[in-house]
Amino acid sequence: MIDLEPLTINGSELKLPLIISGPCSAETEEQTLKTARELASYGIKIFRAGIWKPRTKPGGFEGIGEEGLKWLKRVKEETGMYTATEVATSAHVKAALREGVDILWIGARTTANPFAMQEIADALRESNADIPVLVKNPVNPDLELWIGAMERLNNAGIKKLGAIHRGFSAYGKHLYRNMPQWHIPIELKRRMPNLPIIHDPSHVGGKRELVMPLSQQALDMGFDGLIIESHCDPDCAWSDKTQQITPDVLNYILNTLVYRDETSTTESLNLLRQQIDTIDNELLEILNKRMRISREIGQYKKEHRMPVFQVDRHDNIMQSRVKTAKEMGMSEDFMKTILSAIHEESVRVQINILNSRQ
Ligand code: PEP
Ligand code: MN
After folding, report:
1. Ligand 1 probe mutation, 52, 61, 86, 87, most atoms within 8 A of CB
2. Among residues 26, 56, 89, 285, which one has the fewest Cβ atoms lying within 10 Å of its Cβ?
3. What band does 130 get if pLDDT is binned at 50, 70 and 90?
């Protein structure tokens, strides 16, 4: 059981939706302050910047290190924004606390590593820290690992916890840099309704043009905020340049988004509806996959001069699927209707293939 408190800094509660923005990495003092000043002028209250950057391969920009913490301090003094940075070791935790960082976040690669999480939790306990910590989902789609990381922090006395949904790695090229797998954060919300969960469209999409649609989708699904990467000159960013937007564009996006009003009386209904929406999307994906395979079978049958309809195959499918459905508690008629409709469409598509010229 995780013991949660609202997210507060020095006694003042952070308002939801939580909006956090700033560069992927603090690169120079000038870039950090310029970006921060622009964001502050648009009313952004929480500034993010990576000081230590976990990179896939050595040789890339691995973060400016401790020196950057001084820049965050200046951001705070000059703009009044709260500051947030990523920590991955006990040394990072100690340095960030010493320099007055207001919010810590745990990166996706760190959440996936229980030893690192324990080390961070121990460092927070030793420092008697009472600071909001936001935990990104692990790179792999493992809800228990995500919850386990938060439990370690909670056991160390951290009660101001939040989660960040930044998507999950998948092999190969996809529309998204990291697959959203929305059902995972939704299940987290169902299990821990008081845990604020914010969405990170920058790391899910990996592209500027996906920031807005992903943000809207997250708000529609009832997420509690957004963390969006912004940079005063995104094309020249030292890390994640394809997904960073200017503070100007961020301001436009935040003003264009539709913020849903979710009252507590409809909260559980909304959660259930979100689950239905997600499952329907998954059903569509699966049906689409089935139709693709069906088309391949059609092509095979054409090449081998086989008929489309094979009675015993059809009877087998019906019987075995209806039996399984009944065992699951669904009605026989319902399953027969669905299977017949799917089968009919497969036959129609395969006949078209058989009659096509090539
Ligand atoms: C980041 O926020 O810049 C970052 C490194 O994110 P993630 O841990 O989600 O990859
Ligand atoms: Mn980044």
Report:
1. 86
2. 56
3. very high
